[in-house]
């Protein structure tokens, strides 16, 4: 069977944009969570976000790209270009028909949809909105698929292209989709990853209503506390990570540097509740087991688990139980950490940002920590790598996600040392 | 506004979460858990949001966590409306 | 890759609220396009749409689920019920992890979203309801169907505007090849709230013609844009042996081939890629151009896009050699629901040996297409090509074959 490897990584994460800035931040355990600046959050229950210090012009986007894209599209364009440059692969020198795009996303072009709604509705006054005030790119905002269009245009891809939109698992599922297309031969190279920019009133209000976001408004830097006993909810994030994923022989032929192989992937649904999780960790445990089976890897071989670890009471308990169900005794030995403590939860893109962290962890031999972890919770009793990064040779890394709609996904990345 | 009656509550509930399948909500259900009546956690949050809207209340997270029956919700609202 | 079969079809369309009602209307040339009734369209430049007039969600799902969903998902509830019954599927006979839901989506639950945005800006953040979090996003329908029917296998959601409705069938094929036994696929969309329509207006492709019978004329010299519609189809897919093993001897047909391509950026000087999608899909199916008996065209109704599609069809299949039809002239373009409905039309055309007509169109001979207009054409059919294009450059082609 054909094998798929990651040969380029681009990241726009909370804090400074760029892969190296992201990596430096998370290995140092610094947090990008702060009082929201993208709008005035004073009327909201939770006023904290993990925001990108992002200037589209400084990041190299053209005037037209900036004019026609939402913040989510801008993140994706910058991340895609960094990934392409990192891989050394030029899609237009070969057959662009063999290059595809899959972009994961949760809430589309949400900021632009909301801003343009305010304009055409006169700030919520009229149900019969006035198209006389519509922006010419409005149709591209209502559809998430425009995010894949932008990435395909920027990279010259003419192969199978789509947006994968399975909520908060989309960042993992878009990579899984890319790997499927490479394995079956529909594409040789996939520009795959995810983007989301949800920090805006409607999404913040949604998480307020669900009481799912942290209310540590007095201490935003320490608001997201995955697995800690005092955890009180997630912190919204934003950003993008995009990869160049190649068929192994294609990468070898051009002497590409390989970060890791995407050895196994799975998606499962809970069939239970749109936002709820069973406390016993069943569905995530099943996703982990299925991804390991696909990769033909035993649970004991996992060297690091990059957690979903959103910092909600419900998730962290479910997830801890899931590791115990799927990894057995090894769950107590494997380091588990959540970078959401530092970069927040960027919904549809966080899965790809966490895959970027996992791939860089393999590449650099470092396990990033869980920030803000101080007080153990009896229901969460694993090794969560509190505060400080650890050096370790990592051959097998697991990354997992969970999201609204009842989705659970898992992906297994392996070191190039394991590629025979 | 002076308070919320069982009838008010029932109307909000059916607006938010739909009528019950095959039966009427009665005052005998005051102490029955929402999950046993057939309303999930999201429905309770939707009801809370609607009450906040209609009664101008802010219901804190801890209070929501303790609202497991219709009686809990009605009691909370009446205690806090009179306090205002 | 082994070809999966279609064993159940469920439909919600502007010209028919279930499978057989829609199919009969389609063969009769009865259009569902009319003046917009959901709101007063007088002040909008577009006044014609394909609405599902008369649809009552309470007939298809409990009140609780109706409250927490947008129309797009309510259509899917109805179509999924019909598709499951049509395939005679007892979900209890499957393990939950052997079943999956994979749907396409395009605009999300935009009507639900508009209502909550209005609450946010007219009343404040506390007014936003709890269901906004699960009704507006693109994954709402897959999530709800998965929970309702206890399907816990590899679920998914793909968005590539109208092309996404074929992309999900290919994704269903992938998961069936890896051991999932049953996939609920297809898609439904409902973007006809005032804000939803306004979003669509900005693409400049909607028809401003106020007469329903003149509003959507693909491949006609008078083509002046398309009409938006709502609804779609849910399709049950299984491996052929599995379907036979549970006693289903006559599935509608199989997904014999598929391919997707993406058009280069405008101004790049490179050619469009629909033709390559057609060639790759035929190759994937192991079918020669001569074997194609019918094309269900994307039929955009925009002159330049019609020309490009006709060029791709005639370049691969020859000019005027294969009948081409656009039943969506009776529904409008249904976005994520459009291609699944075309696949449903292909499957029923195979079943009944009849090509549904394209209505109201006087074919422009310059396109070189044998467009089936006016009334249905009875003929032996075995292999049907379905084309779908999504705004922004997405192309997909599927080959549907009888067994």
From TrEMBL, chain A:
Keywords: Acyltransferase, Transferase
GO cellular component: cytosol
EC number: 2.3.1.179
Gene3D superfamilies for the chain: 3.40.47.10
GO function terms (MF aspect): 3-oxoacyl-[acyl-carrier-protein] synthase activity
InterPro entries the record matches: Beta-ketoacyl_synthase, Ketoacyl_synth_C, Ketoacyl_synth_N, PKS_Beta-ketoAc_synthase_dom, Thiolase-like
Pfam families: ketoacyl-synt (PF00109), Ketoacyl-synt_C (PF02801)
Domain Ketosynthase family 3 (KS3) positions: 1-415
Transmembrane parts of this sequence: none
GO biological process entries: fatty acid elongation
The keyword Transferase is assigned to this record: yes
Family to which this protein belongs: Belongs to the thiolase-like superfamily. Beta-ketoacyl-ACP synthases family.
PANTHER family with a match to the protein in the record: 3-OXOACYL-[ACYL-CARRIER-PROTEIN] SYNTHASE, MITOCHONDRIAL, POLYKETIDE SYNTHASE-RELATED
Name of the protein described by the UniProt record: Beta-ketoacyl-ACP synthase II
Source organism of this protein record: Streptomyces alkaliphilus
TrEMBL record, chain B:
Domain called Carrier: residue spans: 3-81
Keywords: Phosphopantetheine, Phosphoprotein
Organism: Streptomyces alkaliphilus
Molecular function per GO: phosphopantetheine binding
GO biological process: antibiotic biosynthetic process
Coiled coil spans: none
Pfam families on file: PP-binding
Name used for this protein in its record: Acyl carrier protein
Presence of the UniProt keyword Phosphoprotein in the record: yes
From TrEMBL, chain C:
SUPFAM superfamilies on file: Thiolase-like (SSF53901)
Gene3D superfamilies per record: 3.40.47.10
BP term (GO), one: fatty acid biosynthetic process
UniProt key word Methyltransferase: no
Domain of life of the source: Bacteria
Pfam families listed in its UniProt record: ketoacyl-synt, Ketoacyl-synt_C
GO molecular function: 3-oxoacyl-[acyl-carrier-protein] synthase activity
Entry-linked PANTHER family: POLYKETIDE BETA-KETOACYL SYNTHASE 2-RELATED, POLYKETIDE SYNTHASE-RELATED
Record-stated family: Belongs to the thiolase-like superfamily. Beta-ketoacyl-ACP synthases family.
Record protein name field: Ketosynthase chain-length factor
Organism: Streptomyces alkaliphilus
């Amino acid at each position: 069977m054909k094998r798929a490897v990651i040969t380029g990584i681009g990241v726009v994460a909370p804090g400074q944009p760029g892969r190296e800035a992201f990596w430096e931040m998370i290995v140092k355990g610094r947090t990008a969570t702060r009082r929201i600046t993208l709008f005035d959050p004073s009327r909201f229950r939770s006023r904290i976000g993990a925001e990108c210090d992002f200037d589209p012009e400084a990041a190299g986007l053209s005037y037209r790209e900036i004019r026609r894209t939402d913040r989510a599209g801008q993140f994706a364009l910058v991340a895609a270009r960094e990934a392409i440059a990192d891989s050394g692969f030029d899609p237009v020198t070969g057959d662009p028909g063999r290059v595809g795009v899959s972009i994961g996303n949760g809430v589309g072009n949400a900021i632009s949809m909301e801003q343009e709604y305010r304009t055409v509705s006169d700030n919520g006054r009229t149900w019969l909105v006035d198209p006389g005030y519509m922006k010419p790119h409005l149709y591209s905002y209502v559809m998430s698929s425009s995010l894949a269009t932008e990435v395909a245009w920027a990279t010259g891809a003419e192969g199978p292209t789509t947006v994968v939109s399975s909520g908060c698992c989309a960042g993992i599922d878009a990579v899984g989709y890319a790997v499927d297309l490479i394995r079956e031969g529909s594409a040789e190279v996939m520009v795959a990853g995810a983007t989301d920019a949800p920090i805006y009133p409607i999404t913040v209000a949604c998480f307020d209503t669900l009481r799912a976001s942290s209310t540590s408004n007095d201490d935003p830097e320490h608001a997201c506390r995955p697995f800690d006993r005092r955890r009180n909810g997630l912190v919204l994030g934003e950003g993008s990570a995009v990869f160049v994923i190649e068929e192994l022989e294609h990468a070898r032929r051009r002497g590409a540097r390989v970060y890791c192989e995407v050895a196994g992937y799975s998606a499962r649904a809970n069939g239970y509740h749109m936002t709820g999780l069973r406390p016993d960790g069943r569905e995530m445990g099943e996703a982990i087991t299925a991804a390991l089976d696909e990769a033909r890897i035993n649970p004991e071989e996992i060297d690091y688990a990059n957690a979903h670890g959103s910092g909600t009471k419900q998730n962290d308990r479910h997830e801890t139980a899931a590791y115990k169900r799927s990894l057995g005794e090894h769950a107590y030995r494997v380091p588990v950490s959540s970078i959401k403590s530092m970069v927040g939860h960027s919904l549809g893109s966080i899965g790809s940002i966490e895959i970027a962290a996992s791939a860089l962890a393999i590449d650099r031999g470092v396990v990033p920590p869980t920030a803000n972890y101080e007080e153990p919770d009896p229901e969460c009793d694993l090794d969560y790598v509190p505060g400080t990064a650890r050096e370790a040779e990592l051959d097998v890394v697991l990354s997992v996600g969970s999201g609204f709609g009842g989705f659970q996904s898992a992906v297994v990345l392996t070191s190039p040392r394991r590629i025979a | 506004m002076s308070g919320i009656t069982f009838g008010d509550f029932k109307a909000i509930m059916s607006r938010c979460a739909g009528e019950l399948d095959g039966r009427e909500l009665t005052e005998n259900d005051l102490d029955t858990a929402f999950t046993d009546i057939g309303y999930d956690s999201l429905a309770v949050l939707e009801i809370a949001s609607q009450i906040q809207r209609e009664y101008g209340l802010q219901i804190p997270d801890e209070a929501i966590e303790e609202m497991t029956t219709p009686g809990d919700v009605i009691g909370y609202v009446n205690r806090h409306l009179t306090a205002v | 890759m082994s070809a999966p079969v279609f064993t159940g079809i469920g439909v919600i369309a502007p010209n028919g609220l279930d499978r057989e009602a829609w199919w009969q209307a389609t063969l009769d040339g009865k259009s569902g396009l009319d003046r917009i009734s959901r709101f007063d369209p007088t002040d909008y430049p577009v006044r014609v749409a394909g609405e599902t007039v008369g649809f009552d969600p309470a007939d298809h799902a409990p009140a609780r689920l109706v409250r927490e969903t947008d129309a797009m998902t309510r259509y899917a509830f109805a179509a999924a019920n019909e598709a499951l019954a049509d395939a005679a599927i007892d979900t209890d006979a499957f393990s939950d992890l052997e079943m999956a839901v994979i749907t396409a989506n395009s605009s999300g639950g935009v009507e639900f979203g508009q209502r909550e945005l209005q609450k946010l800006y007219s009343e404040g953040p506390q007014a936003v309801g709890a269901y906004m979090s699960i009704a507006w996003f693109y994954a709402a329908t897959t999530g709800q169907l998965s929970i309702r029917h206890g399907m816990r296998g590899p679920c998914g959601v793909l968005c590539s505007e109208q092309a996404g409705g074929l992309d999900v069938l290919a994704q269903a094929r992938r998961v069936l090849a890896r051991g999932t036994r049953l996939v609920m696929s297809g898609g439904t969309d409902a973007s006809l709230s005032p804000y939803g329509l306004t979003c669509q207006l900005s693409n400049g492709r909607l028809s401003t013609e106020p007469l329903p019978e003149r509003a959507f004329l693909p491949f006609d010299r008078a083509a002046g844009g398309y009409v938006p519609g709502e609804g779609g189809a849910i399709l049950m897919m299984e491996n052929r042996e599995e379907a036979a093993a549970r006693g289903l001897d006559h599935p509608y047909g199989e997904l014999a081939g598929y391919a997707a391509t993406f058009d280069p950026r405008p101004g790049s000087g490179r050619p469009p890629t629909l033709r390559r999608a057609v060639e790759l899909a035929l190759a994937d199916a192991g079918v020669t151009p001569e074997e194609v008996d019918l094309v269900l065209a994307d039929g955009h109704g925009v002159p330049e896009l019609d020309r490009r599609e006709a060029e791709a069809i005639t370049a691969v299949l020859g000019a005027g050699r294969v009948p081409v039809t656009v039943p969506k002239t009776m529904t409008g373009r249904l976005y994520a629901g459009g291609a699944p409905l075309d696949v449903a039309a292909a499957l029923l055309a195979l079943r009944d040996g009849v090509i549904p007509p394209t209505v109201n169109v006087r074919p422009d001979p310059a396109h070189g297409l044998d467009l089936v207009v006016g009334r249905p054409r009875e003929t032996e059919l075995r292999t049907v090509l379905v084309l779908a294009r999504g705004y922004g450059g997405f192309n997909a082609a599927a080959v549907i074959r009888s067994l």
